[in-house]
Amino acid sequence: MAQKEAGKRKPELALAEVVAKYPGFPRLIALKIDVQRRGVHYTERALAAVDYTIHQMRSPYLFGSRDGQIKDLPESLLLRDGTTILTDPTPLDQNPYHVDLIDGKFALVDKGEFVEFTDLWPKPLYYDKKTSTGIPMSHIASARPQRLNVFQSSYCHFWAEDQGCKFCDIVTHTKQQKNEKGVPTRLKPSDISETIREALKEPGRFTNICLTSGSVLKGKELFDQEVDFYIETLQAIGENFTTKKFPSQLISSSFNEKQLARLYENSGLMSYTSDLEVLNEDVFNWVCPGKASKLGYQEWKNRLVRAVDIFGRGNVGTGLVSGSELAQPHGFKSESDALKATLEEAEYLAERGVTTVYIVWVPRPGSYFHDQQNASLEYYVQKAQGLHDLRVKYKLGVDFDDYRRCGNHPDSDLSRLL
């Protein structure tokens, strides 16, 4: 968290206090949230125990880390119940959890006190291989414990007009990765197909393939060229499957019905997500100026609802960068107001077959919001429970974004309780 903002908010409940206050909420999911909020610092003792032959090290990603650096560190953590934590290496002055070694095992430690044993992500075999064009396959498809990510393009056109989302650092991080790691800005379909083919040789390892990238505003209609790029990529991936459809998720800009029909009919895509980022029109207009000016909050939301007719209930979703709605000076002034407004909007979408998930917002040094503070642990626990309860109420699945296929959403982690 941004420590210089800490004095402006009332004291927050610590992990043990939140767990005691919400006894029906799983402790390990609450821990996951807190580790995501605060980040991690790997001790020298822990780093000495890292085995590069079996542990996955940090791979190219769309967004940067809290320390603003690209380091050869472990990708992330797993808890003993299989919970995936996606978290960043974080400077010590921001009060991160420590990943240390206790009795020969990796462990999360807070202020010198043991919290929980953990493990590092296992490295997939294809990470040690290159495509026929000489690019490391880890630069083409990055792995989560049970999902493959393909970031086909890491440039967002909203940034070209100085209208990027204020929490985002996609372009600044892209330049850093390209300069320091030689990561291509745009991937070739042949490299993608070859990498997916190699990854699928590990039977049972991966359950889903996720595609996402920055927005592309070009085309006869807004986003037409982005749709073309995704169809090209999905068709390259589809070369490795014998069925027309394969387990897949697209996280993209907000497409119209004609564009969505093209995607669905010309590819193996099974689920569609377009992120509103915040569920309130006024805050959305400030946080996401490009999305607001090119399409607008109401049309973005309406397109999600119309997408249900194509992909089906529970196969359409939107994501929130949770906590960014509390950024100042134009965000919500209290967590209670933010929670109420978010759940009301999420219920409107759930009634119409659209599921809402959130990620824990991390203020990143390459973003406009670099000096802001994310929300309290209690707020994130309340929101996770609230969004889960809405999916239960409206009988909405979240298979494409659950604890196995994604691992980045504390609210969808709760789906394992059903």
What's the layout of helices and strands?
Blueprint: H1 15-21, H2 27-38, E1 40-42, H3 44-48, E2 77-78, E3 84-85, E4 97-102, E5 105-110, E6 113-117, E7 119-120, E8 142-144, E9 147-150, H4 157-160, H5 170-181, H6 189-199, E10 208-212, H7 224-238, E11 248-252, H8 257-265, E12 271-274, H9 281-287, H10 289-294, H11 297-311, E13 316-322, H12 335-351, E14 354-360, H13 377-393, H14 410-413
Parallel strand pairs: 1-4, 9-10, 10-11, 11-12, 12-13, 13-14
Antiparallel strand pairs: 2-3, 2-7, 4-5, 5-6, 8-9
Helix pairs in contact: 6-7, 7-8, 8-11, 12-13
Give a summary of the structure in a few sentences.
By secondary structure, this protein is of the alpha/beta class. The protein has helices at about 15-20, 25-40, 45-50, 155-160, 170-180, 190-200, 225-240, 255-265, 280-285, 290-295, 295-310, 335-350, 375-395, 410-415; strands at about 40, 75-80, 85, 95-100, 105-110, 115, 120, 140-145, 145-150, 210, 250, 270-275, 315-320, 355-360.
Mean pLDDT: 93
Strand order of the biggest β-sheet? 8-9-10-11-12-13-14
The fraction of residues in strands falls at: 5-15%
Compute the CA-based radius of gyration: 20 Å
Please give the count of helices.
14
**In which range does the helix fraction lie?**
25-40%
Q: Please mark out the parts with pLDDT under 50 across 5 or more consecutive residues, or reply none.
A: 1-7
Structural class from helices and strands? alpha/beta
How many distinct domains? 3
| SS elements, strand count | 14
